[in-house]
Design brief:
The protein is built from eight helices and eleven strands. By secondary structure, the chain is of the alpha/beta class. It folds into two domains: about 5-130, Rossmann fold, CATH 3.40.50; about 130-225, Winged helix-like DNA-binding domain superfamily/Winged helix DNA-binding domain (Arc Repressor Mutant, subunit A, Orthogonal Bundle), CATH 1.10.10.10. A five-stranded parallel sheet has the order 2-1-3-4-5, with helices on both faces. The chain has a four-stranded antiparallel sheet with strand order 6-7-8-9. A two-stranded antiparallel sheet has the order 10-11.
């Protein structure tokens, strides 16, 4: 299989170089566009497998680039991760409603970006990624139904495995109990919301054995997120 082609649309030269280096290190082929118009031209030349798209761009904004790509039949399903310094909820909603598949607020860690790139590809174009996904020192293998942290195997029940699989696809994103219920149990199954707390507790305990730090953050009145321990 040829390397996954990623188009990075970023006008900040230092950040574009950093993105190109880190994505290249992970085995992705990376092209750079410096503004929205160049991005659209590069997509016309060769459609990438995924776009990392800055919101604030010269000439044509990232939001407008996203809107135009979503309006075309040939690029309607092209995976897009939006980058922005806009941290307000309304801006995140606008970015996602315009058609972005994921949304990252600057500054962000490169390891989280790479994890999110793999997660979006896995959801939208599963043939481009393998059955194994990693975040920090945690590795989940769907084919073998096996989880490891560092050198140690992590023993999980089926529900905890599905919970981790969902969280590891969206590192850093906070999910409410209801969202996790729908994603892991299904919207047609009646389960008490507090059941999520029980399974999150079991997952935390399993991932924290052998002296490892707890990677699941509780956000009061909001939910849970998988994050690299600081």
């Amino acid at each position: 299989m040829s390397a996954t082609d990623i188009l990075v649309v970023e006008d900040e030269e230092a950040l574009a170089t950093l993105l190109e280096y880190n994505l290249g290190k992970e085995g992705f082929e990376t092209r750079i566009a410096r503004d929205g118009e160049e991005a659209l031209l590069r997509v016309d030349e060769k459609a990438p497998d995924l776009i990392v798209l800055d919101w604030m761009l010269p000439k044509t904004s990232g939001i407008e680039v996203c809107r135009r790509l979503r309006s075309r039949n040939d690029t309607r399903n092209l995976p897009i991760i939006m980058l922005t310094a806009r941290a307000e909820e309304a801006d995140r909603i606008r970015g996602l409603e315009t058609g972005a598949d994921d949304y990252m607020v600057k500054p962000f860690s490169m390891s989280e970006l790479v994890a999110r790139v793999r997660a979006v590809l896995r959801r939208i174009r599963p043939g481009l990624v393998e059955d194994t996904v990693s975040f920090g020192d945690i590795t989940l293998d769907r084919a073998a139904h096996r989880v490891t942290r560092g050198a140690a195997e992590v023993h999980l029940g089926p529900t905890e495995f599905r919970l981790l699989d969902h969280l590891i696809q969206h590192p850093g994103r906070v999910f409410s109990r209801e969202q996790l219920l729908n994603a892991v149990w299904g919207s047609d199954v009646f389960v008490e919301a507090r059941t999520v707390d029980v399974h999150i507790g079991r997952l935390r305990k399993a991932l924290s054995r052998n002296g490892y730090a707890n990677p699941i953050r509780t956000v009061r009145s909001a939910g849970y997120a998988l994050e690299l321990p600081t």
